[in-house]
Structure prediction request, 142 residues.
Amino acid sequence: MPDASAIRIMPMLSLRDAARASEFYQRAFGARELSRLTSSDGRVVAILAIGEAEFGAVDETPSVGNLSPETLGGTSVRISLYVDDPDAVAQQAIDAGGDVIFPVQDQPYGLRQGRLRDPFGHHWLISRPIDAPGAPAAELDT
Prediction:
């Protein structure tokens, strides 16, 4: 069992085009691509980071049940991204090709937050606590 300080969760986003998604996440959220593997059949697995938070962008593999939101017709997961300026980050993501689900505004649960859909179907909640910019807060999204 790893030391508790080393335990972390790293989501792996299944996508129809992981290479193009990696480019979007870099433009939209300032992500850095840490590594990329391309299999002999052209499937991509890219590891990215936004700040210190790492996540994977992987080409979907229907034969083992790794399906993209595009294939599924929706998603059951929302990704919360806490930033100092959610208005600016949301606009950057929109400019890169994201769609607004609900605009960034002060929410009754204490966050300045908006929700976007990336071009691949994943939902991103762009947030900051209203009273403490940059501080982590529990997500109470409805």
About this structure: The helical segments are 18-29, 69-72, 86-96. The longest helix spans residues 18-29.
